Amino acid sequence: MRELLPLLPKPSRYLGIEEGSVHKPRHEVRLRLGLVFPDMYEVGMSYLGQKILYSIVNARPHWQAERVFAPCREAGEILRARGAPLCTLESDIPLNRLDALGFSVTHELCYTNILYILDLAGIPLRAETRRFPGPDGRPWPLILAGGGCSMAAEPLAPFMDAMILGEAEASLPEVLETLERARREGRGRHDLLLALSRIPGLYIPEFFAPDGDGVLRPLHEHHRRIVRRIVPDMNEAPYPVLQPIPFGAVHNRLALEIGRGCTRGCRFCQAGSIYRPARERSVATLQKLLDDCLNSTGFDDLSYLSLSTGDFSALRELFMKTAPRCEREQVAVSLPSLRVGSLDGAIMARMAELRRTGATLAPEAGSQRLRDVINKGINEAELIAHARALCEHGWQQVKLYFMLGLPTERDEDVLAIADLCRAVRNAAPAKNARLQVTAAVSPFVPKAHTPFQWEAQIPPEELRRRVNLLLTAVKKEKGVTLRWREPDMSLLEGLFSRGDRRLADVVESAFRQGALFTSWHDECRLEPWLNALAEHGLRLEDYTRERGMRDPLPWDHLHSGLSREFFARERDNSLRGKTLDDCRYGACHACGVCDTLRAASNLESLPDMPADARYGNRLNKSRRDQDPCGPLADPEDTGGGDVPMDDLKIACGDTAEGRNDAERTKSATGRQARKKPPAIDPRLAVKAAKWRILYSRRDAAAYLSQLEIQRVFDRALRRARLPLSFSQGFHPLPLVSFGRALPVGVISECEWFCVLLREKRRPEEAIDALNAGLPGGVRILAIENVPLQASCADPLREHYRTQWLGDVAKREEFSLAWRRVGESPALPWRREGKKGPRELDAKAFFADIRHVAPGSCDLLMDWSGGYVSPLALCLHALDSVGHRDAPHLLRLTKLA
């Protein structure tokens, strides 16, 4: 694929040269795995799971994990037109030459993207058609799937050789060891699958046969009941300190996983079931990970990641211990997945002093009755208090998440969403201040392995009626914005979230009809899916209907650890409006996951687990350290030794630090705090030195955009631990300025940028440190001190070299075209700009054209009349004299 980079839209998606990416000599690699995220690069590079597995596999000296993402439609068409297979990022190896492909299946709407990737790779879609070797005699790659959807992904099963249930940190290495041994011993595919079926947590779909109406019958006695696998102790779980740093991503930040699992018990939440029990990393472990990760990545944005971050038992301690470094280096901190009331004033005040991020809360339902049905565990007073506290600490906007179509929902529950939004908007304590409220509404989708797995899904037309009801209620409300998810998209999600194996034919047919990137709003089309259902004699209503409590379910053979009896009991509780407390800090509800005095866990005891090991919640503290009376010291409950006495004092506000936090909270409140940005330490704004840094961009790095190269250097400067000067305002940034933007695809030997430092340093000492943290093809050439007030202006003339890369026989034709350019009196050029069309003479930009060799010319560009893209200029000049070869056959290099 590398030779097609000039033709591909946004080529940086396919470079594979990011800092932190792993490249090994091919002759040293005995087993090669493609880690595939079935969406575009920007989405996949936000996914922590792939980074964790990438790190684990690449830690083995003779294994190589490489990344694969779904190319956009246009890129896919280019690959097909050129007969080029889809390749890995790191080594540019065709996917059909790998030993295994592992798909991260994080949602149901990516199923056709999986077939898209297999098809572009030239790999047969169905597992049954991969039983025999490929055209070159090599076995096809082992096709694996993992992620949350694998617990109920029967519509995907016929395309997969194996699925990993649960957390893959332990099981994936066992799978690859088995695969490597089978390849070495020359064992066939069936023998390989038999060996894999004995690995705990691994599901072999073809070892189950459909027995009518979607019910599956096991073919092997040892492979009847497959139970998900988990990491019992998160302090033992690997975390990628070194990780590929994306050139661009939806969430371009350090996602530090502080814990896994949630036991809040929201009855609609599949993740709350399939990631139990709640397991926290220790504060000491997280502090070290944070320092190591910031040092190795240079991220300026940090997110504490968990299913329910606010329920982390030592969140206050963790935040207060890590905030000083984040403040010192202007690293923004966000706490996603917050439950209402899960932050105290001290944390809010400290966050307000850092770079402020958005505030998002999830009431899920407007009325208290419906919140009790779903066991949300919050009330309106708590929500209003939380919103008021945010406003007092400077937040002016808050986003609220709701669902429509929840079981037992009535119109008054829908209208209660509008009432709740008004109440939050009016929560600001000052008379002339208001919060801006955005209500994001998503249709409820019943999910497998939840108490609502038997419920019916509301039809799209009814959902639209309820959306319109809500729109009418808020349309005249100032400060309230309503956004909603397209019901058709949720309808498709519901179709596959509880689908059986018969839907595999529907997935393939929809793929053949062009259904791709269905989770993207502008790509979601219902028509190909309805056509595919009709083609195979299936009805959508059969999958979205209510299920009988005794009906067989397509995922009955796949076990999350939570018992069917628990789900049935919780469904009954929901209908009665009965709520349950979080079992982390209260009574056990006998869901079946944990080892208790009454019963052993439904999860399997693994061979490498110590004899006295137990499945259960593992917390830092036996009570949240934000609770009014602080945490209780209980080593057995925390799983991590004694709780220091200082922790108890801090939580109760009895120390100087606690009193300072209280004063900070008080001083941050009021109208002044809301209108002013957080003040940074004045020492961070000092300007003591100015550097002009010269660098080159060669090879694949030429395909980075100007914005991407700026991000590369921002992180490299942080990794080099340089004392950067920062701007003021709501979003303080390092004071860095770049020269003219170089077009994508142009090589340069002489780029530059300027940076201000708050301390004087010797420039030569920084070159090696910066080069150690740059992607391949980008190198620092020199650093020079310049006066603080000096202007780092671009030259009015620049020297370029243009070279012909096509057929050698056409070199002279290329040189002749440039001679005609030089002899032309004028080259009229009509360009579309932001202010409309603009008439130019392209010839005026060429101060000189010199022929240095066959197929190579030196160009002296004159920018005194304004700057234009030199690449676009050259292509237009050649086109004007009749030379119309493909752009990828021209190489342009900036020399001076």
Quick summary:
The chain is α/β, with parallel strands linked by helices and 896 residues long. The protein is 30% helix and 17% strand.
Would you write up a description of this structure?
- The chain is of the alpha/beta class and about 900 residues long.
- It is about 30% helix and about 15% strand.
- The chain contains 27 helices and 29 strands.
- Strand 25 (about 830-835) and strand 26 form a beta hairpin.
- Helix 8 (about 285-295) packs across helix 24, helix 9 packs parallel to helix 10 (about 345-355) and helix 12 (about 380-390) packs parallel to helix 13.
- The chain is globular, with a radius of gyration of 30 Å.
- The two termini are about 30 Å apart.
Keywords, separated by commas or semicolons:
896 residues, alpha/beta, eight-stranded mixed β-sheet, six-stranded mixed β-sheet, 27 helices, 29 strands
